[in-house]
């Protein structure tokens, strides 16, 4: 056997029936798990090692190795993608030979069909299109052409009532270190529109036959166009150059803050002089869309999605203001974060543990409690507090309380 494995903190998978093609694994190993997934040309299975799930995809020729290497590059560029674990040549003899790609299963991810088929997830549907637009902007900022943007090639994770999109299929991706030309960005959007239109068209057709209502925010024929427009407005917002006149230096901070508000981190700011220095053009370089996520992770160790982190960072800033006010001194942000985590976040999530399931993690539930707190406080005309909001949320939405 030729072993081309590169495995970090993962099992060696040696007990799997590698001598068989993937579509003959059923009944040959107790590790297989049935999970919802998008359409694919290649066979894909999921395996379970002590609760840690992995996806294995069988592909012809050297495609598994190529995709593995691309996924590593995407991960290094901080793109939201499935995490590569390894690849290997298949052990059974075929001409041409085949390879297998192993990726870590993206926990709490939802394939788009599940978003349409399960009641209770309807309110997320309208965010699906914006999430794809956001992922495309991230890819293009990093100089990556996807080449096959589609609903099936994307997985979705809940993020504070919205969705984040993750790239799952990197087979066609290309890295352009000097950035993407407008022609390539245009081609990407064309491919996306064609794929999304076809996929939603098929889904709507099946829905009509099976009697469920796959309502997206827009009709299926307009969904691709909606993503294109959402992409364009985000891209233009990031690329916007503003002119700073003498005495307007505060606008530099203002511009950086507005990009941060959208979740983008700014790595550097270029100033180009105009009119012999009396005015400057501001050109920020935007990197990944993980501004609040990185901030929250370094302050608390909590690994979240961007919108979730933004909500929690707002709470931490509020705690910082309250503590500073109470103690009549300026309280550092990390002190406020520690206080928030121990007196607010952890006691609240203790109430929610029984509600965690394959679609919803603790952090998302916490964000739902924040929304509930806001709603209850509005009704009561005073702040009802986290505990009351959590208990009310559990009472109304938990199916497992007894
Ligand atoms: N790491 C993973 N975590 C969760 N789901 C996954 C993972 N890898 C694959 N899947 C599921 O398997 C499906 C098929 O995977 P993928 O798109 O990579 O296959 P493919 O055969 O290359 O597709 P295509 O026909 O577009 O070439 C995905 O839509 C996704 O639902
Ligand atoms: Mg695919």
Structure description:
The chain is an alpha+beta fold. The chain has helices spanning 63-76, 112-117, 125-141, 182-210, 220-239, 250-261, 291-300, 306-327, 333-350, 362-380, 386-397, and strands at residues 32-33, 44-49, 52-60, 84-89, 98-104, 109-110, 144-145, 154-159, 162-167, 174-175, 242-244, 266-274, 279-286. Helix 4 packs antiparallel against helix 5 (220-239), helix 7 crosses helix 8 (306-327) and helix 8 (306-327) packs across helix 9. The longest helix has 29 residues, at 182-210. Strand 8 (154-159) and strand 9 form a beta hairpin. The mean pLDDT is 90. The strands form four sheets. It has a five-stranded antiparallel sheet with strand order 1-2-3-5-4, covered by helices on one side. It has four domains: 22-104, 2-Layer Sandwich (Phosphorylase Kinase, domain 1), CATH 3.30.200; 109-238, Transferase(Phosphotransferase) domain 1 (Transferase(Phosphotransferase), domain 1), CATH 1.10.510; 241-286, no CATH class; 304-397, no CATH class. Magnesium ion binds next to loops.
What is the strand arrangement across the widest sheet?
1-2-3-5-4
CATH architecture field of the largest domain:
Orthogonal Bundle
> What is the fourth-level CATH superfamily of the largest domain?
Transferase(Phosphotransferase) domain 1
State the secondary-structure class.
Answer: alpha+beta
Are any ligands bound, and if so which? adenosine-5'-triphosphate, magnesium ion
CATH fold assignment of the largest domain: Transferase(Phosphotransferase), domain 1
End-to-end distance, in Å? 53 Å
Low-confidence segments, given as residue ranges, are none
The main sheet comes to:
5 strands, antiparallel
> What would you call the quaternary organization?
single chain
**Structural domains: how many:** 4
Number of strands: 13
**CATH top level of the largest domain?**
Mainly Alpha
Roughly how many Å is the radius of gyration?
A: 24 Å
Share in helix: 40-55%
Report the total helices: 11
Q: Rough shape?
A: globular
Mean residue pLDDT? 90
Strand content: 15-25%
């Amino acid at each position: 056997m030729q072993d081309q494995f590169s495995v970090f903190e993962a099992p060696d998978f040696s007990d799997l029936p590698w001598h068989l093609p993937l579509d003959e694994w059923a009944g040959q190993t107790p590790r297989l798990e049935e999970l919802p997934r998008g359409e694919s040309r290649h066979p894909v299975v999921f395996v379970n090692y002590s609760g840690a799930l992995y996806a294995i995809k069988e592909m012809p020729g050297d495609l598994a190795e190529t995709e593995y290497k691309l996924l590593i590059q995407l991960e290094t560029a901080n793109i939201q993608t499935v995490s590569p674990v390894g690849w290997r040549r298949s052990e059974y003899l075929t001409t041409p030979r085949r390879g297998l790609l192993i990726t870590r299963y993206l926990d709490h991810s939802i394939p788009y069909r599940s978003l349409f088929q399960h009641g209770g997830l309807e309110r997320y549907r309208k965010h699906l299109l914006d999430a794809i637009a956001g992922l495309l902007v991230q890819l293009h900022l990093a100089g990556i052409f996807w080449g096959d943007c589609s609903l099936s090639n994307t997985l979705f994770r809940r993020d504070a009532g919205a969705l984040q999109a993750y790239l799952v299929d990197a087979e066609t991706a290309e890295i352009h270190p000097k950035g993407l030309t407008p022609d390539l960005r245009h081609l990407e959007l064309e491919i996306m529109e064609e794929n999304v239109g076809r996929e939603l068209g098929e889904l709507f057709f099946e829905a009509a036959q099976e009697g469920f209502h796959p309502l997206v925010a827009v009709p299926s024929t307009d969904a691709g166009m909606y993503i294109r427009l959402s992409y364009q407005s985000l891209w233009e917002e990031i690329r916007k150059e503003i002119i700073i006149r003498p005495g307007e230096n505060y606008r530099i901070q203002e511009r950086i803050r507005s990009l941060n508000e959208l979740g983008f981190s700014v790595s550097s700011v270029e100033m180009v002089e105009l009119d012999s220095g009396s005015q400057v053009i501001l050109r920020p370089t935007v990197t990944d869309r993980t501004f609040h996520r990185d901030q929250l992770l370094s302050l608390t160790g909590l690994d979240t999605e961007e919108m979730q982190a933004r909500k929690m960072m707002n709470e931490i800033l509020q705690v910082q203001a309250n503590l500073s006010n109470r103690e009549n001194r300026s309280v550092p942000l990390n002190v406020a974060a520690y206080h928030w985590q121990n007196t607010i976040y952890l006691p609240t999530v203790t109430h929610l543990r029984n509600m965690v399931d394959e679609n919803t993690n603790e952090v998302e539930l916490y964000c739902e409690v924040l929304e509930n707190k806001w709603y209850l406080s509005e009704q009561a005309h005073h702040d009802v507090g986290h505990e009351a909001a959590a208990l009310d949320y559990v009472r109304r939405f938990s199916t497992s309380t007894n």
